[in-house]
Structures are given as structure tokens and as C-alpha cells.
């Protein structure tokens, strides 16, 4: 993709706690995030990382793991959002099944 001109990816890592990723049915793991960043660095693609605080099952400890994960990944830029549910939606419903 870098050869095709890609210079920046915006990536929803969401959390550094594996259980939180399972709770939201992310379909990706912390290890996948690490490997992705390694590959992006290897080919020179910058990454803007997105993280969410307050997802179902979140604790002070899981928030700290997310902070530590974000620091470890060392993305060029990050965004941290607070989780919120839309009316009549369940935060544990898989994102791909929420199409309107």
C-alpha cells in the first residue's frame, strides 16, 4: 500500500485490554495491533490511533492498560474518545450489525 501512495492510516485500536476487545466483539487483538504497527513502521506508513475509554467492562486497570498500549504503539497522533451508546443500541452489539 505504501508503494501505491498510502501515507497515513487511521486505526481503531480501541483498547489495550484483550477482554474489553472481546466484550465489544472487536474481532482484533492487542497482538494484531502490535504487528500492524510494526508493519506500518517497516514500510513508512504513519498511523493515527483511535482509543475509547469507558467501554463495557472497563475498570481503572483496563484504562491503564489502554494508556500503556497507546504509549507502546507510539502512533504519530492519537485520539481518545469516551464510549457512548446511541439510543436503542446495545454497546455489546457487534458494530457490523448496526447498519441503518
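^ C-alpha cells above, recovered residues below v
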Amino acid at each position: 500500500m505504501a508503494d501505491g501512495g498510502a501515507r497515513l492510516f487511521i486505526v481503531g485500536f480501541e483498547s489495550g485490554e484483550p477482554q474489553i476487545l472481546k466484550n465489544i466483539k472487536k474481532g482484533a487483538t492487542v497482538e494484531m495491533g502490535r504487528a500492524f504497527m510494526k508493519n506500518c513502521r517497516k514500510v513508512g506508513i504513519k498511523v493515527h490511533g483511535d482509543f475509547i475509554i469507558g467501554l463495557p467492562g472497563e475498570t481503572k486497570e483496563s484504562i491503564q492498560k489502554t494508556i500503556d498500549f497507546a504509549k507502546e504503539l507510539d502512533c504519530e497522533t492519537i485520539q481518545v474518545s469516551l464510549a457512548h451508546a446511541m439510543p436503542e443500541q446495545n454497546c455489546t452489539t457487534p458494530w457490523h450489525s448496526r447498519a441503518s
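The radius of gyration is 14 Å.
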